[in-house]
Design goal:
The protein is an alpha/beta fold. The chain has a single domain, classed as Metal-dependent hydrolases (TIM Barrel, Alpha-Beta Barrel). 29% of the residues lie in helices and 25% in strands. The chain contains nine helices and 19 strands. The mean pLDDT is 95.
């Protein structure tokens, strides 16, 4: 597996990487379009598993009219694959949103929508974070079945609070149908979280956020994650949601293979400071901080290219390790690593070209150049 390519030639035929060779072995053929990116890095296209929108667009509310604009701006961030992260005010509304998302997935195009991430409705309203309390409902198998059927096999992750009444029947259903069950927006304690990891929970929605703190006598869900054998965990790397030292601690405990950096992006991503609408409520962007009027964090203003630079600049991570955290691990988590997440012969040609300062200079999606600042 190659997460970073340098001093080599990558040959693309159609949508796929056909050959990778040393520069000295390259012999150009008639009809080739050649890009000289000497002294730069080629890395896999970024994969964002937790994306609510950006550039003024709340995707859950504006899939019909806002997605094309969102996509036109996203290319400049190097993100090539996303999960659409969705919420809904009522069961009917959520199913309508899911149905619209399924139509988008069928249509194809950029970015690649690898599936859907449902953040609720079976979460703890006391830990809703930016999700309105009236978007939260008791766990019922009937609603879980209706939601799953509306997704037509495209629901990849669902965030659930393990402590709420009746939840395990719902968890069993999603697990049996191949959906990753994620612990999130929860008030659970260490014991409840540990039991959950023994009963089909295998992922954590934005670790440390919208859950009890890690404390030395009450380790809570974070302690249970740290003690788990193979649970994966998202981290929002904007230096606001989680301090870099705590991100570093999490990587030391869980390793580079179990952490996935995400954006949890809001409509404020890519926008100037100001007021925007998110889940039908007002949010305010001030620098890199996005909050509700009460001061609670409401998603982020992150994009994946900024996540990369934060990891490289603040934590001084090795670029190969970082690309696990922003591409490979995400692809493995949702079962698409056979196609994307690394630069290998036979895989889809989703490639970012970075300069030595980690600035995005080119983005290739599905074999086509969609962003070029060379």
């Amino acid at each position: 597996m190659d997460s970073v390519i340098s001093e080599s030639v990558i040959e693309i035929s159609g949508n796929y990487i056909s050959h990778i060779m040393f520069t000295k072995d390259f012999r150009p053929k008639t009809g080739y379009e050649i890009f000289d990116v000497s002294d730069m890095y080629a890395v896999p296209g970024f994969i964002d598993l937790h994306c609510h929108g950006g550039f003024g667009i709340d995707l859950a509310l504006n899939l019909d009219h806002g997605f094309e604009y969102f996509a036109s701006k996203l290319a400049a961030t190097g993100t090539t694959t996303i999960l659409l992260s969705l919420v809904g005010s009522t069961k009917r509304n959520l199913i309508e949103v899911i149905s619209k998302a399924v139509r988008l997935i069928r249509r194809g195009g950029y970015p690649r929508i690898a599936g859907l991430y449902l953040e609720g409705p079976f979460i703890n309203p006391r830990r809703g974070g930016g999700i309105p309390a009236d978007f939260v409902r008791p766990a019922t198998l009937g609603e879980a079945i209706d939601i799953f059927e509306a997704g037509e096999g495209h629901i990849k992750i669902v965030a659930i609070a393990p402590e709420i009444e009746g939840v395990m029947e719902v968890v069993d259903f999603f697990h049996k149908n191949g959906v990753v069950v994620s612990m999130g927006h929860t008030e659970c304690n260490y014991e409840e979280a540990s039991r959950a990891f023994s009963n089909h929970f295998s992922h954590v929605t934005h670790l440390f956020n919208a859950m009890p703190d890690l404390r030395h006598r009450e380790p809570g869900p974070v302690g249970a994650v740290f003690d788990s054998k193979d649970a994966t965990a998202e981290l929002i790397f904007d230096c606001i949601h989680v301090h870099p030292s705590v991100i570093n601690l999490s990587i030391k405990v869980l390793g580079h293979d179990r952490i996935i950096f995400v954006t949890d992006s809001s409509p404020a991503t890519g926008q100037p400071d100001g007021t925007y609408s998110f889940f039908g409520r007002k949010i305010k962007k001030d620098g890199v901080v996005v909050t509700e009027p009460n001061g609670l964090l409401a998603g982020s203003a992150l994009s994946m290219d900024v996540v990369l630079k934060n990891a490289m600049d603040i934590m001084a991570c090795d670029i190969k390790a970082v690309n696990k955290l922003i591409s490979a691990n995400a692809a493995k988590r949702i079962g698409i690593y056979d196609r994307v997440g690394s630069i290998e012969e036979g895989k889809v040609a989703d490639i970012n070209i970075l300069d030595k300062d980690m600035n995005l200079r080119m983005c290739i999606f599905n074999g086509d150049v969609i962003y070029n600042e060379l």
